[in-house]
Design a protein that fits this description.
binds flavin-adenine dinucleotide; 4-stranded antiparallel beta sheet; 390 residues; alpha+beta; Butyryl-CoA Dehydrogenase, subunit A, domain 2; 4-stranded mixed beta sheet; 3 domains; Butyryl-CoA Dehydrogenase, subunit A, domain 3
């Protein structure tokens, strides 16, 4: 891409090589057993990847959304599961503490999160509140110098085995009365529930968090009481841009595998790449991938330059994720089709890629919710009338 800086190209090379050497040899087995490459986080810490967007003055690497998206793309081209866990750690937890935390909170929590000693995650979704995140029921009740937190979170990436969580809870009677707390999994009353068995992203642990009378010091509240909605939505935008990088990495790997296979596999005495129907799948995949790549990095660059704010920024992030996620699933399916029977087996990584790709159509806002976000920006009140059934 023409606008990448030398620093970003270097980062791209570093993550590409890290993914090939550290993640590549392990992912097939970890996908099979639903394991987790926890060790890779220590190496990511050494490479400065865990605090990628945290300011240098706070001990981070001080890079931007374009860089974080590049890191996701390179990691996901080899191992999308670890890329997803990396996203939950670095963007949903570490970045948020870096952007919104106090000096004391940053000093207390960032060093171990950025070295990889601690694994981070973010708790927004609940059993009864997925797309309708503001419908969450977890409550934080103010005491003298602490909050008593009760409730549960579900679908939490890095929930099983995680140490530090950036958790949203209700602190008032209204739907938008949300506050944020940094919670440590060793706090009394904090337990983790079951780890989910999943179709894809099997080497990224997902599970439940349970809070029973967890006493959290008031010093762990991030930002003002009842004022977290705006910061939560803003981080969702960054999540949608960077997670699109995961879709791009998955698709790129599928296109490479399918192209190579089309050159080598012969049927009817010809490489299958000579057949126009195979060419159609390959060329459509390559063109859609490039279009999504342009859209995603445009969204990331726009974010970095602060060219769009509020709803406009949300719409840009939603467009990038809506297209990239659908593209990666379709490209995964096309790669399987091109590889025929081999594509349907675990001999080649494309079936894992397709299973992994599907998650991105659900997590960080489903396709349907992203269309709602885009429609609201395009149609204003008319869209709200439609979506609320008025
Ligand atoms: C592997 C994985 C990892 C995750 N990691 C995290 C994490 O780290 N932290 C976290 O907080 N959450 C996480 N999530 C949760 C994720 O963000 C939610 O799954 C997602 O927001 C959808 O919520 P839901 O699953 O409850 O589906 P629901 O909201 O129940 O939706 C069900 C269906 O209804 C549709 N729907 C809902 N509302 C509308 C509407 N208004 N218009 C049209 N259609 C609608 C949806 O699009 C979907 O098709 C993760 C999920 C998964 C699967």
């Amino acid at each position: 891409m023409w606008f990448l800086t030398d620093e970003q190209r270097m980062l791209q090379e570093t993550v590409r090589s890290f993914a090939r050497t550290e993640l590549g040899p392990k992912i097939e087995h970890l996908d099979e057993i639903e394991g987790f490459n926890r060790e890779s986080f220590y190496k990511m810490g050494q490479l400065g990847l865990l605090g990628i967007t945290v300011k240098e003055e706070d001990g981070g690497t001080g890079l931007d959304a374009v860089s974080a998206t590049l890191a996701m793309e390179e990691m996901a081209a080899v191992d999308a599961s670890t890329a997803l866990s990396y996203l939950a750690h670095s963007i949903l937890c570490v970045n948020q503490i870096g952007v919104n935390g106090t000096k004391a909170q940053k000093e207390k929590y960032l060093p171990k999160l950025m070295s990889g000693e601690h694994l981070g995650g973010m708790g927004m979704s609940e059993p009864g509140a997925g797309s309708d995140a503001l419908g969450m029921q977890t409550r934080a009740e103010k005491k003298a110098d602490s909050y008593l937190i009760n409730g549960s979170k579900t679908w939490i990436t890095n929930g099983p085995g995680g140490d530090i969580f950036y958790v949203y809870a209700k602190t008032g009677p209204n739907k938008r009365d949300l506050s944020t707390f940094i919670m440590d999994s060793t706090m009394p009353g904090f337990t983790t529930g079951k780890k989910f068995k999943k179709m894809g992203m099997r080497a990224s642990p997902t599970g439940e968090l349970w809070f029973t009378d967890v006493s959290v010091p008031a010093a762990n509240r991030v930002g003002e009481e009842n004022q977290s909605v705006r910061a939560m939505m803003k981080n969702l935008d960054l999540e949608r841009i960077t997670i699109s990088g995961i879709s791009l990495g998955i698709a790129r790997a599928c296109i490479e595998t399918a192209t190579q296979y089309s050159k080598e596999r012969k049927q009817f005495d010809k490489p299958i790449g000579a057949f126009q129907q195979i060419q159609e799948r390959l060329t459509e995949a390559a063109a859609w991938y490039e279009a999504c790549r342009a859209l995603t990095y445009q969204a990331a660059k726009t974010w970095d330059l602060g060219l769009m704010v509020g709803k406009e920024a949300s719409m840009m992030a939603a467009k990038a994720k809506l297209q990239s996620a659908q593209m990666a699933t379709q490209v995964g399916l096309d790669a399987i089709q091109i590889l025929g029977g081999y594509g349907y087996t675990r001999e080649f990584p494309v079936e894992r890629a397709m299973r992994d790709a599907k998650l991105i159509e659900i997590g960080a806002g489903t396709n349907e919710i992203l269309r709602v976000v885009i429609a609201r920006q395009m149609l204003g009140e008319v869209a709200d009338a439609l979506t609320s059934g008025k």
